[in-house]
Design goal:
The chain is mainly alpha-helical and 305 residues long. It has eleven helices and six strands. Helix 2 packs across helix 6 and helix 4 crosses helix 6.
Length: 305
């Protein structure tokens, strides 16, 4: 499905918080929490339908297929940015976003009714991509995509996916740095692939042209969190909750709750890292989710695989 490929191309541009206060960090943490809770709420409807990304949820080849799509689309995006053809890619991204929204809404609405909100979101993102619209869209799509992929993979392939993407994230941000270039291109295109947390009330994402790699204090008008930073750990949360039989609390079993708490712990650890440059988010977030998941399995007395 195109949207998850798009989301995960930006999953590692978590911008570390400046010493100006804890507000932006708490807002980003709130976004991740809401995404995971909403994904859990959507899970029964999506799991009860026929929608599946992979034909065999137990196949360990699923993470490989996922990563191949990510690599291919990343190369396409970088090429378009270098050739200054961002408008083509932006159009493709918007269509992919609309397709994803429509696909998710089909689990709850008839085709015609699902088309109406899909078109409304598409028009808003195309003609008025302000930060609060992008953020609201991001929460809904992250939850839907996470639930869709979570029900499409059992816990072993889901965990392998988190491991592979954590390594890829670190390499692409710290070594090759192509994800930093990609994030800057996404901001310039105003593509809805980031959570945006403004520093001030008068900030406008539509008018922001600042590079994410700027290091001078105060020069960036907002902090950015890639949608994939919320999606990828949540895939394990949903997979654990659906495929493992364990004691539950308010609709989430212990392995899923452990993965959620681990994600938040990883995020807090990420916010303690160097604050003057882009950081790879998934090594922290995925590691926390995996350790929390395994601890939850141990407490529940269930085998994770």
């Amino acid at each position: 499905m195109p949207q998850d490929e798009l989301d995960n191309n930006i999953d590692n541009k978590t911008m570390a918080k400046s010493p100006e206060g804890h507000g932006p960090m708490l807002v980003m943490l709130l976004f991740m929490t809401v995404v995971q809770l909403l994904a859990l709420a959507l899970m029964p409807a999506i799991a009860g339908g026929d929608a599946r990304v992979f034909e065999d949820p137990e196949s360990t080849a699923n993470p490989i297929i996922y990563v191949v799509f990510i690599l291919g689309f990343t190369m396409l995006l970088l090429l378009a940015i270098r050739l200054k053809q961002g408008w083509v890619i932006n159009g493709f991204i918007l269509l992919a976003v609309a397709s994803s929204i429509y696909y998710i809404l089909l689990a709850f609405l008839p085709p015609l009714l699902a088309l109406i909100p899909t078109l409304a979101v598409l028009l808003l993102l195309r003609y008025y991509p302000e930060w609060y619209i992008v953020d609201a869209f991001g929460i809904l799509v992250c939850a839907g995509i996470s639930a869709l992929f979570g029900v499409s993979m059992t816990t072993l392939p889901a965990l392998l996916l988190l491991l592979v993407l954590a390594v890829y994230d670190a390499i692409s941000v710290y070594k090759t740095r192509h994800m930093v270039s990609l994030a800057e291109g996404v901001i310039k295109m105003k593509a809805p692939l980031l959570f945006v947390v403004p520093k001030s009330r008068d900030y406008s994402f539509r008018k922001d042209q600042m590079a994410v790699s700027v290091q001078a204090k105060g020069e960036r008008g907002a902090y950015f969190l890639g949608l994939g930073d919320a999606i990828i750990p949540t895939i394990l949360v949903i997979s654990a909750n659906l495929y493992l039989s364990a004691p539950s609390i308010l609709g989430a079993n212990l392995p899923a709750i452990g993965a959620m708490i681990g994600t938040y712990a990883g995020f807090l650890a990420l916010m303690k890292t160097t604050r003057d440059k882009p950081q790879a988010g998934l090594p922290f977030l995925n590691s926390g989710a995996i350790f929390g998941f395994l601890l939850g399995c141990a407490l529940a007395g269930v085998r994770p695989f």
